[in-house]
């Protein structure tokens, strides 16, 4: 209909204007953010008893990323004014939301070299993974199988040889799924060059909002998936449920920003990663980097500090937000299965720390983190009986330890 | 009549609510702490970290745990001729709760006799440090470390007794 087409043009003009903010991003993070507690809306008449609270530096981008300010800019109109249901076909509210959704779909597709018709929005990479794996159960032929590989590992940052795996799967007529949550927008991906049939995408790993993701499902040759949730038949019947316009607009904006800034981010993050590793290894002996150094995404650095336990180091580095592969930090008291799988000694698995460097990490933050890390590892080694024994020339592997 | 009464009740109730002290907002918004401040204190203000002379007859050394488990504690005690523990030192490879448990253990054994030190229970250590259930094994290892140090000390006393009897 002419009216609908006109609306689409008008909306794309508005959203384009909203998206074209100044190129330099305003820093979403500062070195210290003063956070005034009490935070409730209730104002007490008494004099404020709470002192301003300093928050830790954020070095855990593999767990989640902050919203890029440009993404928030893109989302706000859809949280305030343009609140229509994208599937409403009878009025302008629906049409403008639908136009925004389709524009976001194009942004996601363009980042991975796909056709927009191959992108289905979901609530996140977990849902996408479930849809992809369920496909295996829905397969008709008994000999159909599926290969599922992570593109970039979230614990050690290792990049899998996706193109080679894709080639092998395609020649054997086996479906290939990859969970690209940590890779999308960070390393170049092309679903056609790499012969990927299914891909999971996560919004909050690429400076987009939480609660949204996408699954890429190849159309040629067609990959059939079974819907996890049934309902009104939205998203080509593959994922019923109203598509949350503000969230998908955020995902689309995050993908577009990532496409523009991928090369610059990669170079900057590589330099910061080198800086962090060099500073630490120059001042501390017996530090092991986990994961293949050649096929590695630089923003995810996993280091094992021998003779120091991971959780105690996290406690000591209380003003830096980090993560560890130690058993003490997991609910199950088992150390990281990833580290175990690559053959890391168990005591080194207990000593691992993951440093995440992202788009907004500054050189100052990296220097501070390295400095504090060196200081506290030295201190914890002074408190460590293992370090003492090694200094005395004892071979730890020769000791019969008591089992507890 | 009833309506008026109800209205008065409502007004009184709302007056009461307005006048009642609001909950301090800080308590409502305080974040859940992962590390109890007592545990952090043992790391930030360490006491009794170090080593005693392993070869000395008056020193008992207990080494418990395993690096593969992520927990190793070394606890040493120095005992005087009267059987009283006059000094204790520890070194630990383990999480914050493990460091705090072993640190507290050295504080508690000081001044006790060898027999009294045997009565220190892991439940007391856990209670003092407010350890969550998932960290209780750290206090158990600290109790084991105390017992291992005492056993080592006793073992060192025995050959001398045998010589004296000869």
Automatic annotation (TrEMBL), chain A:
<dbReference type="InterPro" id="IPR015424">
    <property type="entry name" value="PyrdxlP-dep_Trfase"/>
</dbReference>
<dbReference type="GO" id="GO:0046872">
    <property type="term" value="F:metal ion binding"/>
</dbReference>
<dbReference type="InterPro" id="IPR020578">
    <property type="entry name" value="Aminotrans_V_PyrdxlP_BS"/>
</dbReference>
<dbReference type="InterPro" id="IPR015422">
    <property type="entry name" value="PyrdxlP-dep_Trfase_small"/>
</dbReference>
<keyword id="KW-0479">Metal-binding</keyword>
<dbReference type="GO" id="GO:0031071">
    <property type="term" value="F:cysteine desulfurase activity"/>
</dbReference>
<dbReference type="InterPro" id="IPR000192">
    <property type="entry name" value="Aminotrans_V_dom"/>
</dbReference>
<protein>
    <recommendedName>
        <fullName>cysteine desulfurase</fullName>
        <ecNumber>2.8.1.7</ecNumber>
    </recommendedName>
</protein>
<dbReference type="GO" id="GO:0005829">
    <property type="term" value="C:cytosol"/>
</dbReference>
<keyword id="KW-0663">Pyridoxal phosphate</keyword>
<dbReference type="GO" id="GO:0016226">
    <property type="term" value="P:iron-sulfur cluster assembly"/>
</dbReference>
<dbReference type="InterPro" id="IPR015421">
    <property type="entry name" value="PyrdxlP-dep_Trfase_major"/>
</dbReference>
<feature type="domain" description="Aminotransferase class V">
    <location>
        <begin position="131"/>
        <end position="368"/>
    </location>
</feature>
<comment type="similarity">
    <text>Belongs to the class-V pyridoxal-phosphate-dependent aminotransferase family. NifS/IscS subfamily.</text>
</comment>
<dbReference type="InterPro" id="IPR016454">
    <property type="entry name" value="Cysteine_dSase"/>
</dbReference>
<dbReference type="Pfam" id="PF00266">
    <property type="entry name" value="Aminotran_5"/>
</dbReference>
<keyword id="KW-0408">Iron</keyword>
<dbReference type="GO" id="GO:0005739">
    <property type="term" value="C:mitochondrion"/>
</dbReference>
<keyword id="KW-0411">Iron-sulfur</keyword>
<dbReference type="GO" id="GO:0005634">
    <property type="term" value="C:nucleus"/>
</dbReference>
<dbReference type="GO" id="GO:0051536">
    <property type="term" value="F:iron-sulfur cluster binding"/>
</dbReference>
<keyword id="KW-0808">Transferase</keyword>
TrEMBL record, chain B:
<keyword id="KW-0809">Transit peptide</keyword>
<feature type="domain" description="NIF system FeS cluster assembly NifU N-terminal">
    <location>
        <begin position="35"/>
        <end position="157"/>
    </location>
</feature>
<keyword id="KW-0479">Metal-binding</keyword>
<comment type="similarity">
    <text>Belongs to the NifU family.</text>
</comment>
<comment type="function">
    <text>Mitochondrial scaffold protein, of the core iron-sulfur cluster (ISC) assembly complex, that provides the structural architecture on which the [2Fe-2S] clusters are assembled. The core iron-sulfur cluster (ISC) assembly complex is involved in the de novo synthesis of a [2Fe-2S] cluster, the first step of the mitochondrial iron-sulfur protein biogenesis. This process is initiated by the cysteine desulfurase complex (NFS1:LYRM4:NDUFAB1) that produces persulfide which is delivered on the scaffold protein ISCU in a FXN-dependent manner.</text>
</comment>
<protein>
    <recommendedName>
        <fullName>Iron-sulfur cluster assembly enzyme ISCU</fullName>
    </recommendedName>
</protein>
<dbReference type="GO" id="GO:0051536">
    <property type="term" value="F:iron-sulfur cluster binding"/>
</dbReference>
<dbReference type="GO" id="GO:0005506">
    <property type="term" value="F:iron ion binding"/>
</dbReference>
<dbReference type="GO" id="GO:0099128">
    <property type="term" value="C:mitochondrial [2Fe-2S] assembly complex"/>
</dbReference>
<dbReference type="InterPro" id="IPR011339">
    <property type="entry name" value="ISCU"/>
</dbReference>
<dbReference type="Pfam" id="PF01592">
    <property type="entry name" value="NifU_N"/>
</dbReference>
<dbReference type="GO" id="GO:0044572">
    <property type="term" value="P:[4Fe-4S] cluster assembly"/>
</dbReference>
<dbReference type="InterPro" id="IPR002871">
    <property type="entry name" value="NIF_FeS_clus_asmbl_NifU_N"/>
</dbReference>
<keyword id="KW-0408">Iron</keyword>
